[in-house]
Amino acid sequence: MATRANSLIVTLFVSLLLVPTGVQAGALCTDTxxxxxxxTDTLPRGSTNAEYIARLVAVNADGPITFSIDGSxxxxxxxxxxxxxxxxxxxxxxxxxxxxxVFCADDTTQxxxxxxxxxxxxxxxxxxxxxxxxxxxxxxDGRVGExxxxxxxxxxxxxxxxxxxxxLPPGLSLDGETGEIVGVPSQAGTFFATFTIIDFGENNxxxxxxxxxxxxxxxxxxxxxxxxxxxxxxxxxxxxxxxENHAGTPTFGASGxxxxxxxxxxxxxxxGIPDEAGTFEVTLTASDGGSTITTNLxxxxxxxxxxxxxxxxxxxxxxxxxxxxxxxxxILLDTEGSxxxxxxxxxxxxxxxxxxxxxxxxxxxxxxxxxxxxFTAVDNTTGDTLTLSVEFIVLPxxxxxxxxxxxxxxxxxxxxxxxxPGKDAWVGQAIFNADRRTADRFDPAVDTLRLAIxxxxxxxxxxxMTGTEKNYSFKSEKGVLPTDKTKxxxxxxxxxxxRKKATASDVVPGFFDxxxxxxxxxxxxxxxxxxxxxxxxxxxxxxxxxVVRTGKVKVKAPGSDKAKLSLLLYxxxxxxxxxxxxxxxxxxxxxTDVVFERDFGALGDVSLGTDKRTGEVTWSLKATKDxxxxxxxxxxxxxxxxxxxxxxxxxxxxxxxxxxEVHLGVxxxxxxxxxxxxxxxxxxxxxxxxxxx
Length: 693
Known about the structure:
Elements: E1 37-38, E2 46-47, E3 52-55, E4 58-59, E5 66-70, E6 80-82, E7 88-91, E8 97-106, E9 111-113, E10 117-122, E11 132-134, E12 142-143, E13 148-151, E14 154-156, E15 161-166, E16 172-174, E17 180-183, E18 188-199, E19 204-215, E20 222-223, E21 231-232, E22 237-240, E23 243-244, E24 251-255, E25 261-263, E26 269-272, E27 278-287, E28 292-302, E29 310-312, E30 319-320, E31 331-332, E32 334-336, E33 341-346, E34 352-354, E35 360-363, E36 369-379, E37 385-395, E38 400-401, E39 409-417, E40 424-432, E41 449-453, E42 456-460, E43 466-468, E44 471-475, E45 483-489, E46 494-502, E47 510-518, E48 521-529, E49 534-535, E50 545-554, E51 561-570, E52 583-590, E53 593-602, E54 604-610, E55 617-623, E56 632-639, E57 644-652, E58 661-670, E59 673-683, E60 688-690
Parallel strand pairs: 2-10, 12-19, 15-38, 18-28, 21-28, 27-37, 30-37
Antiparallel strand pairs: 1-4, 3-7, 5-8, 6-7, 8-9, 8-10, 11-14, 13-17, 15-18, 16-17, 18-19, 20-23, 22-26, 24-27, 25-26, 27-28, 29-32, 31-35, 33-36, 34-35, 36-37, 39-40, 39-49, 40-46, 41-42, 41-47, 43-44, 44-45, 45-46, 47-48, 50-51, 50-60, 51-57, 52-53, 52-58, 54-55, 55-56, 56-57, 58-59, 59-60
């Protein structure tokens, strides 16, 4: 079916965009789940000058839902349409009218109908426009290891346009100027990617979710499941996940399930009693003995069996650095089911704000990055609380997607032990780059530390850490389970954590999002855990990670200054072509001011190899001798199999560095790939800087 976005301001979210015909939800546990009912009892108002979007939501279905309009009420408002499979109401209203509509839902075993829901369309009052829209049929299927090329088409709008994207299949990237999706897929599955159009001519931002299916290298193994059942806190839950074209009996895994739910790896049945409310992004995996596939879907959990409180979440447009995110009508992340709600967020990028009473996202992001943000909504009447954890992407001026953003967080080691409730454990250690200048560095008295992977969330609220900048630490109180420990060293840019005596609903092996929020700086990495729940760097990363581990700078006099950096880099999308000699460019920046810049030219000696564990191609390089009299690259070497990189600069002029503290940008370009991080240097003795605080 076509996925034309119809100019939706924020359009169909991942969980219900496409529902395949004839898929059965399974009957392994439907006799014990809760009562099939509507959550939706009200609809947002619309206007004749803007696109409309709303969603019908039901919980505790016994099978795939088909939505319809009952003839006992008014018809749908003029210009709008209902998608029977997903429950989305979309279109551009053309008549000022108020209709009281009765909706019905059929889950293959029973039909329920709602009370009349009032849908009010007001007259145009400024803001809103026809704008640009995606005009793209379902994107072509791809296959692991084979080159992929597809384009996003649009209609309408003024331009110029910039494209943004997130959740693309690993190995693919989006061209921010042309809308082309290109690359060599490295992971199989169905990926519900969020694409954004930014129309500078109308200051309009439109988001749409379009699936891309990547088949395994030698089979057509894929998920049939393309939506998840919704549930309620304290009510038994049931859902079953299905695949097709599997070579052997498939086994299943999951990360991100709400607390209280678990999956049976052998059957794909998800059961339990949810103990937290909100909207949850779940990553599903399935293995048939020869291939592993993955997909990303969403689940809504209501606070109780009588509550209709839930997020109206259809995706968030990506941001552009230094571009105002505001728009009319505003970009909202709000809720249904309560008239008195307080909103808050942890992890938003600097420059962005979230309206405490409106749920409006606004502001101007000031730094490129992938920010894991946890949104919270509290119903002030009932006290019910909803959470939603998503990525907020801030792209460079030219757009693109998150695969072109270097995550400045490197996991040194990590393990997640599951399958033994009450005795599960999660431990890890990482290096990070963040602003550590006096006025901006993490302050445990007022800042939050939050670490998460799958169902495990370790959060340390302000005032709970002790120690100094060399080592801040936290340990949960005696008798409190699970037992949590963290150690954060701003001096060394390291963080360690452990969670023991826990219960994890996640199943390994599988793909997980590794989140970290350290004060105002957030990070998200995609990681793969093996059958023992162990992560091994760098090949178990599925996003680019780039950090400065240590660094020293000596400023003596123009032409005799030096710098030495120890770095870590892994890019799963980098493809080395031995027939080409990619150029090397290095820049150091103080804000936007260039402190050092050198185009080195051909890299020199390159050796190819194969990683014994993964079979992936590795490459090692050592730059040829630099005979330049000034701004000389004294040493540059890289081993992709370990991620280790060394860079030394000599005979330079680094007098542009300010005294005291400097948050220095490090930009590295190899061929057509650019990596960027910022790291804080501190001046000890005059002219001598170090990353060590």
